[in-house]
Amino acid sequence: MPPPVQSQRSPSPSQPSGKSEVSDLKLQLRQLAGSRAPGVDDSKRELFKKVISYMTIGIDVSSLFGEMVMCSATSDVVLKKMCYLYVGNYAKVNPDLALLTINFLQRDCRDEDPMIRGLALRSLSSLCVANLVEYLVGPLGSGLKDGNAYVRMVAVIGVLKLYRFSSSTCIDAEFPSILKHLMINDSDTHVVANCLSALQEIWSAEASASDEALREREALISKPIIYYLLNRIKEFSEWAQCLVLELVTKYVPSDTSEVFDIMNLLEDRLQHANGAVVLATAKVFLQLTLSMSDVHHKVYERIKAPMLTLVSSGSPEQSYAVLSHLHLLVMRAPYIFFSDYKHFYCQYNEPSYVKRLKLEMLTAVANESNTYEIVTELCEYAANVDVPIARESIRAVGKIALQQYDVNAIVDRLLQFLEMEKDYVTAEALVLVKDLLRKYPQWSQDCIAVVGNISSKTVQEPKAKAALIWMLGEYSQEMQDAPYVLESLVENWEEEHSAEVRLHLLTAVMKCFFKRPPETQNALGAALAACVADFHQDVHDRALFYYRMLQYNVSVAERVVNPPKQAVSVFADTQSSEIKDRIFDEFNSLSVVYQKPSYMFTDREHRGQIEFSDELGHLSIGGEPSENVVSAQRVDENDKDLLLTTSEKEEASGSSNNGSAYASPYDNSSASAVGSQTRAESEISNQSATGYSSQSASLGIEDLLGLGSPAAAPAPPSPQLKLNAVAALDPSTFQQKWRQLPVALSQEYSVSPRGVAALTAPQALIRHMQSHSIHCIASGGQSPSFKFFFFTQKTESSSTYLVECIINTSSANAQTKIKADDQSTSEVFSTLFQSALSKFGNP
Amino acid sequence: MLQCIFLLSDSGEVMLEKQLTGHRVDRSICDWFWDHVISQGDSFKSQPVIASPTHYLFQVVREGITFLACTQVEMPPLMGIEFLCRVSDVLSDYLGGLNEDVIKDNFVIVYELLDEMIDNGFPLTTEPNILREMIAPPNIVSKVLSVVTGNSSNVSDTLPGATGSCIPWRAADPKYANNEVYVDLVEEMDAVINRDGVLVKCEVYGEVRVNSHLSGLPDLTLSFANPSILDDVRFHPCVRFRPWESHQILSFVPPDGEFKLMSYRVKKLKSTPIYVKPQLSSDAGKCRVNVLVGIRNDHGKTIDSITLQFQLPPCILSADLTSNTGTVNILGNKTCSWSIGRIPKDKTPSLSGTLVLESELERLHVFPTFRVGFKIMGVALSGLQIDKLDLKTAPSRLYKGFRALTRAGEFEVRS
């Protein structure tokens, strides 16, 4: 009903605003109420229509209650119907006025026209007003005994309404036992069906309170009742058949011959025109044969054709509901549908939710014999105008590739996608090629050749870019220019907005470094520096982690970051088989459409939205397998996120690190180092990227981090001062010293225009100063003002120099504050620093 | 068990609300629903079953009217959808079509119908024949009748006899001076032809429609010459199952008037009546299109109202298309439709022209799908043939008529 003023939509200008029209109507109704003039019914009808249309559009007309009731003393059925409608809507709001209607409703319940008796009884039982319950019992009692089936049918439902409203009144009047009697003895199937639905509800609700009700509920699914209903099933209306069939699914036959009897009896229901009946029958068949596996499979065969017909004959909405069920069957027993794959081909006009289901089914039914045709079909969708579906079909091709043994032809198709020059096709295909390579490393030759031709600039989507970068890192040995591509990507670090891509980039550069150190060291240094300065916690943490690993032992780092991989044999399934079984048990219910067992979406109501999302968050962070099913499914729901990190997990599978935030416990070391510091201070830990010292002397680490590439200029020779190229200082020591030492020298000088031009990002200067053995420990700021903290050490002693350098590019000057352990040499250092700085920007 | 049914206009306005249980559903759910639809862009794109924060919603959209049903309990989804489809069928049958105005004008009838079709959230009677006996349709005849007789109620006085009879689809004893029964085979051909011109899928969905005006309780048997070609069949409740199972004979007591006796599917057909050969070749920012249409194998019947429709890809700036037969129209939403009508004897219809692509594109990467429409009177392309129709106790005068018709269903040709 429209409760007063609940419509949030503002009434359109043509709609009456309410007040004056309502009082107008009131007046007119009043005039007509007593009149017995001929034709008065027609004018009443017009007025009633107006009242009801106001009610429908949400205007409160409850103030007319009295007048409406007065006018309803009529023999006109349509008037009565409108009046019943009105009364039903407003009785709850006006319980006192509703009392007025009792009289005429009760009188109508004794009318000689069964139609009116029925209608009045229906309205009377719909009133739902507490103080009127007592008036309902009498008419219901006589209604149940009425000679006309229509009235009995209405009365049975009336009993149920009464029960919902006041269960004690209903039980006290012994209505349930009357219903039971009617159900077994009434000649009219509508009455029987209504009794069944009423009793089911009443007994189920009572069962918790009384043992008798429990017994009665059990009795409903006892053999005699079930057989009685089944034998009459063809007489029931199609909707009642659904009800009976639903009841039969709960029945447990005593032996197999009984199962066959029931199935024989119901077989023709599968041919029914009503899809609901067909599905209900299918459910009975499936449930009855659950324990008989060979018959169960024959049932699949049997219900396959009717369901496929339902899909192709109904409206899109019906198709969808049936398809959801077929989807379930296909997932459970794909082999049954191997030859029916053409039914799952998408039609151009179908809504995308139908196409999506079909694509999943096509993926599931692909086997050796039909793969070629299915993949051909899917490839046609890839050029579809409907972009989301085009994407899904490419993904489907990939999934098929991953589940087949003979992927020869599919790989070619995928590679063709890459050459289609459509950005989203390329993007999807890249992700697939990546997964494919993880499962079939033997294809790397072919794939890499094609992937190598893709310019990283044309790929924009994070997932695809991440995939491409992963391949660059993984196959850097085979791809000639991998280090250079990675390097150019690192240079554009600032433009990369997706943390996922940055993470992948870091890892890829690491991998590349292990394979081709000389070509990658620059890029790795830059990447680590950029990562540590990254605002994203995961990126930052992973960079620190890598750095510390390198620091600890390079070969260990390689084992962790780039372990020999085993091909993935099975990718984690999206839904556990247990969940699938649960959904299957709820065949022919909403669960199937949602692809979740009912407790998952019904529970949410009780739990509330916020808690739900909390749980999600918790689980994705924990990432550990949960014991209870509910949360296991939550993880599944979240599996997109999980998949996102799968690749990382795999990279680190040997060493139990997955490097992402999800594994924060492993980052304890860096966390504690950074832990107590503020964010600004933690930037100081930047030194880890650059001022890296040397206990791990293997490979060219010093080279990488201290001296730059061999081509880079050696540290400027200074007679007075030799600086240690691989000086090390940790942030806290730096801080401590900075606080303790006085400022030895404070200077200001101009920066060359070339230097200004080169200083677009702090990293550029940091790299430059490094080549002069002056290491940056922290940097910050944005154009035009940058701030750096540098430090360096003398080669012969551990005496250190600390520099704060503020460079303003707009005014082209630099302010430096130098502090030194050995104050006497600060002058010398200052000139050294100045000359190093002045060379910045020189080619 | 449904709790409430709403009828929404195409602007989201609640035209009608029918509460079905004591558990009232607040109208605000419609606002939620409408916001949801808008967020999906198009009601056609949103799913038929939606979970709102408070209710599960079933929606069926017909002619711009959204039939929305709410429930809070688990129930068979197809029952909800199927019921809403029936409601829309019955309403459009009663009101002679569906649109906002006709529903607002006749909302009393809609209420009455809903009252009889569903009670307490459980569907009752959806058989149109029976409903028509309880509630008279608002047609001219009944209006004239009410003026003449002075009985202005459009509710018949009699109660449907069938509610108590064991043949729920048939009203009690109608009487006809002329006993007539007509059987129509109506088939739709669904076909997919792929880029290489290979027939990927071709099947026929067919219906046997019967229009019967027979007195008393007629018992009919209908048999086919070649029932073995049928892949799957579905029957009206009146069809007896055993005779079909043993001899493939349809034995039934028909409802009065028009009804769908049976629907069937015939799979794996080998050929289509017409061919469509699209050719697209693109070069230097332009795409040449050439489409040929012709008759493939002659059924001896004329193929009528041949149409071809396709959606131009979004990357196309302009299109210049002409044909040697029929007319070509390009609609605002970039749908190109070519209506050919009949194929002339002397020439092969062809559509040709150029599409201009967006400036940065060299070649076309997204290819349109051509949807083909046609109609053939007098033949059922599945090959199904009616053998004979018998009436057990034949009245003195009986007219029997058979017709067949095939039209294109989802007939698509990819390029």
Q: What is the general shape of chain A?
A: elongated
Structural class of chain A: mainly alpha
Mean pLDDT of chain B: 79
Strand content of chain B: 35-45%
Number of strands of chain A: 5
For the largest beta sheet of chain B, what order do the strands appear in spatially? 11-13-9-8-23-21-16-19-18
* Oligomerization category of the chains in this entry: heterodimer
The largest sheet of chain B, given as strand count, sense and whether it forms a barrel, is: 9 strands, mixed
The global form of chain B is flat
Give, in spatial order, the strands making up the sheet with the most strands of chain A: 1-5-4-3-2
Unreliable parts of chain B: 140-166
Uncertain stretches of chain A? 1-16, 604-719
| Pattern of helices and strands of chain B | EEHEEEHHHEEHHEEEEHEEEEEEEEEEEE
Structural class of chain B: alpha+beta
- Structural Rg of chain A: 39 Å
Q: Beta-sheet strand percentage of chain A?
A: under 5%
